[in-house]
Amino acid sequence: MYVTLPSEPSEIITVPHLPAPPPQTPSQKGGHTWKTGQSLYHEGDTAKRVYEIVSGVLRLSRVLENGRRQVIAFGYPGDIVGFPCNGKHHTECDVIAKAEVISHNKDALENGEGDPALHERLIAAALNEISAMQDHFMMLGRKKAHEKIASFLMVLNQRVGVSMGSFSQFHLPMSRSDIADFLGLTTETVSRTITHFRKSGIIALDGVQTVVVLDPAALQEMSEGE
Amino acid sequence: MYVTLPSEPSEIITVPHLPAPPPQTPSQKGGHTWKTGQSLYHEGDTAKRVYEIVSGVLRLSRVLENGRRQVIAFGYPGDIVGFPCNGKHHTECDVIAKAEVISHNKDALENGEGDPALHERLIAAALNEISAMQDHFMMLGRKKAHEKIASFLMVLNQRVGVSMGSFSQFHLPMSRSDIADFLGLTTETVSRTITHFRKSGIIALDGVQTVVVLDPAALQEMSEGE
DNA sequence: CGCGTCTTTGAGAAACATCAACAGCGGTGG
DNA sequence: CCACCGCTGTTGATGTTTCTCAAAGACGCG
């Protein structure tokens, strides 16, 4: 259903410019499968493991007391999520699209004993994560709604888009509200902006969850502001 | 504007715009002093070291082509900055207040050989950084201007505030524009909001760079929305 | 087929940005 | 020592974006 490209460079989707993280050489073959709607962990949970996504999509998020939510990242194949801080998880991690996940003991991240190669790979992933988050800051703090949506669609297109003749298309497993909470917008603004792109002929929709990119250059231009 | 200290022995390096890097062996104790306005590194620089702040204040930032800037973080004593990604720095790092900084070879972060204790300390710092950035996401994406400013002042007060009788006060080494770029606002909005807090009796100013917190509870309340 | 949920669309309000002018402050040079 | 200059910060008037509230349409599921 979801096209995963295990051989492709993959990264946290907020990082458009980063080259490939380590190739898929999981230390353990065959991860665990999680269904849509399940949670790998919750905010405040004691962190024992970090998770390497083989297939599917995860959502990392935080909620404020008053109910406001921020989606921190969407995890795609190749991403590693669940980095602990002081032994605890600081986000929710929910499954958006049925996922296969390999878990590693957090000790493999925190000290090199055992598997030095894995240790270094996890550290590299954590450093990548930091850089990815810095990109996302730019997005949240300094871009307008249409730039945010355009950037978001472009990154997804680059990461999971498949070529369909002269166009390319990809699947949006997350809801409009997930996108809104990721970009710091409301669902209405997300919806309106996507509609606007559609009416402008930049993209087309096939159902609410499939995006066809008709004019990548225009999308690129949108993402940079005018 | 970035001045290289003549008194500093500066290596001849292929990076043309790099001011004098701290000439020292890995993990040297004692640190190195940087003056206001200097840059520890620039976006795109090859990352050789990470920096542990002993005193002073640093500013980590990124700029978009169109000139829009996002301040990623302010580095205060105890913080470790300059985590590399794929061997490069992905932010600017400028000195806001004269700083003493200890630099560590990045190898100490990436593999445990040498000093395992330092290695683990740097990893913990990186993981802390991830968590701190997640907090900041909440701020940028889901808080209103007055909540952002109030949160910002509160954090600074907790971190560097000194008790003055029944009140506490702290220094704001960064400009209004730095604060704006950190919080995703304009300088005008920052200024107006601070003025509003002042007129409400929540804070007082002693010059533009000293904040006296008169009513911490009100500030707390402001930071959470109503 | 009916129901609940998600998405889209619309109208109006609010928050924040933008544009513009002025004030404060430190530094410089006469 | 003071007048001037440039820079940063403040304040005001106005404009735009985005949010909020409301309702209708689409879609999946039982």
Summarize the SSE layout with pairings.
Two copies of one chain form a homodimer.
Chain A: E1 32-34, E2 39-41, E3 49-63, E4 69-75, E5 80-81, E6 92-105, H1 106-110, H2 116-142, H3 145-160, E7 162-164, E8 167-171, H4 176-183, H5 187-199, E9 203-205, E10 210-213, H6 216-223
Antiparallel strand pairs in A: 1-6, 2-6, 3-4, 3-5, 3-6, 7-8, 8-10, 9-10
Helix pairs in contact in A: 3-6, 4-5
The structure holds a DNA duplex (30 and 30 nucleotides).
Q: What would you say this structure looks like, in words?
A:
The structure is a homodimer of 226-residue chains. Chain A is of the alpha+beta class and 226 residues long. Chain A contains six helices and ten strands, in the order ββββββαααββααββα. The first copy, chain A, has helices spanning 106-110, 116-142, 145-160, 176-183, 187-199, 216-223, and strands at residues 32-34, 39-41, 49-63, 69-75, 80-81, 92-105, 162-164, 167-171, 203-205, 210-213. In chain A, strands 1, 2, 3, 4, 5 and 6 form a six-stranded antiparallel β-sheet that branches. The model of chain A is unreliable at 1-27 (pLDDT under 50). Chain A binds chain B through residues 18-19, 62, 64-66, 68-70, 72, 83-86, 90-91, 109-112, 116, 119-120, 123-124, 126-131, 133-134, 136-138, 140-143, 181, 183-184, 224-225, and chain B through 62, 64-66, 68-70, 72, 83-86, 90-91, 109-112, 116, 119-120, 123-124, 126-131, 133-134, 136-138, 140-143, 181, 183-184, 224-225. The structure holds a DNA duplex (30 and 30 nucleotides).
